[in-house]
């Protein structure tokens, strides 16, 4: 399932094509959404907001569309006369004169008044989005120290969207490695310096993945690996999906274990308990 950086990049892709341009045609593949077609045609997309793995499309007439890609949903953009040849089911089609943005295969979609979209059950449950410009290291640190999360093992906390929306499995492994903390530890077991490092790396790794299209290794290392001819998957991560391969820092074989039903990777030396 895509994580926060991938959802934000998908939102950027759609915004780049249709934002602030009148919608000539709107399509919905779900029966309960079809009554909104006439209300949205002629309006414009003002912005696309992400809350973790959910995407909220804000329209100029005071309506907003909540959508969650879940496992199979995907946004696609194209020229208006070059619709993709696919067996996927169209759920949402937003068409301007020259281009189209289409959401395929997703099933969790609803229309809300913009002023009450925050009442959506999913949005009420999730925490701040890790890629929102208003989210600071101090806010992450505050949440790590909060009563709700202070005594949770980091292995589970960094999959919990109530803590920070947009975190996910590969980000969990990469953040904990970069911060140098063992996945079984709790925020309550870390000193102030470790907590601040973890808060910093939480945002830094997510932003790096967003800005680079999925890389969490630092830029200089990526360039060295690419110069050696290593492919995308081989250069992308520090520890994730690198079981038994040497740690990029200390050469210790990377470990893999299932935490909270998901695979997690770490270095026994760099993240000693």
TrEMBL record:
The EC number(s) this enzyme carries: 4.2.99.18
Domain (Formamidopyrimidine-DNA glycosylase catalytic) ranges: 2-93
Source species, domain of life: Bacteria
InterPro entries assigned: EcNei-like_N, FPG_cat, FPG_N, H2TH_FPG, Ribosomal_uS13-like_H2TH, Znf_DNA_glyclase/AP_lyase
MF-aspect GO terms: class I DNA-(apurinic or apyrimidinic site) endonuclease activity; damaged DNA binding; oxidized pyrimidine nucleobase lesion DNA N-glycosylase activity; zinc ion binding
Pfam families per the UniProt record, alphabetical: Fapy_DNA_glyco, H2TH
GO BP term, pick one: base-excision repair
Keywords, comma-separated and alphabetical: DNA damage, DNA repair, DNA-binding, Glycosidase, Hydrolase, Lyase, Metal-binding, Multifunctional enzyme, Zinc, Zinc-finger
Domain FPG-type span(s) in chain numbering: 238-272
Protein family (similarity comment): Belongs to the FPG family.
Name used for this protein in its record: DNA-(apurinic or apyrimidinic site) lyase
Classification lineage: Bacteria, Pseudomonadati, Pseudomonadota, Gammaproteobacteria, Alteromonadales
